[in-house]
Specification:
The structure holds two protein chains of two kinds. Helix content of chain A is 0%, strand content 59%. Chain A is mainly β. In chain A, strands 2, 4, 5, 9, 10 and 11 form a six-stranded mixed sheet that branches. The relative contact order of chain A is 0.35. The model of chain A has no long low-confidence stretch (mean pLDDT 93). Chain B is mainly β. Chain B is built from no helices and eleven strands. Chain B has strands at residues 4-6, 10-13, 19-25, 31-38, 42-49, 56-57, 64-70, 73-78, 87-94, 104-105, 109-113. In chain B, the strands form two sheets. In chain B, strands 2, 4, 5, 6, 9, 10 and 11 form a seven-stranded mixed sheet that branches. In chain B, strand 5 and strand 6 (56-57) form a beta hairpin. The chains are: A mainly beta, B mainly beta. At the A-B interface, strand 4, strand 5, strand 9 and strand 10 of A face strand 4, strand 5, strand 9 and strand 10 of B.
């Protein structure tokens, strides 16, 4: 079956860099996505990696290593508004049309 | 901008009641999804629909059913609500021709069953 592992909580200081890791076990892997969710809000799509390497979008980057079944989300120049939950999600042959989400990482950015 | 709306932000129902949660999207997306979100468990897929009148069970379909009579509307039905169905329910939609991992979520319905 599928499983995704990510840390439950991470704390970092404003202006710093933080990395949120995600490891997965799956079959027929298509790609790894990241979503952000603020308290009381809806999850919003951040990034998608289907191939190995780093994808950069402004202050956020996402990395994938298919051979290691591992990816991470990198947040640079942290701002207070980045305090949120971050979910990795896998699409594979089992999930098909759908996504299988990790349990989420709660990021707290402190002054 | 894609807009996904859900009929209620907060709902309180009694055990045994039949509950309808409605979701509407305005971007002509083929695929729609229902998740529930519980602390420490992340988002778990209940049902999804890849097109009108089509539905597939997700990971936790027990106690739920769905209806997709029109492309823009996807309904989640709790046939006989139970206290363990108290949760946040999130609807999402996706363009089957676009980025398949990019889902657009509604604001959620927080359902309490007493």
């Amino acid at each position: 079956g599928q499983s995704l592992e990510q840390p439950s909580e991470v704390t970092a200081v404003e202006g710093a860099i933080v990395q949120i890791n995600c490891t997965y076990q799956t079959s027929g892997f298509y790609g790894l996505s990241w979503y952000q969710q603020h308290d009381g809000g809806a999850p919003t799509f951040l990034s998608y990696n289907a191939l190995d390497g780093l994808e950069e979008t402004g202050r956020f980057s996402s990395f994938l290593s298919r051979s290691d079944s591992y990816g991470y989300l990198l947040l640079q120049e942290l701002q207070m508004k980045d305090s949120a939950s971050y979910f990795c999600a896998v699409r594979d042959q089992n999930s098909g049309y759908a996504l299988n989400f990790g349990k989420g990482t709660s990021l707290l950015v402190t002054p | 901008d894609v807009k996904v709306t859900q009929s209620s932000r907060y709902l309180v129902k009694r055990t045994g009641e039949k509950v309808f949660l409605e979701c509407v999207q305005d971007m002509d997306h083929e695929n729609m999804f229902w998740y529930r979100q519980d602390p420490g468990l992340g988002l778990r897929l209940i049902y999804f629909s890849y097109d009108v009148k089509m539905k597939e069970k997700g990971d936790i379909p027990e106690g739920y059913s769905v209806s997709r009579e029109k492309k823009e509307r996807f309904s989640l039905i709790l046939e006989s609500a139970s206290t363990n169905q108290t949760s946040m329910y999130l609807c999402a939609s996706r363009n089957s021709q676009g980025q398949l991992s990019e889902q657009y979520f509604g604001p959620g319905t927080r359902l309490t069953v007493t």
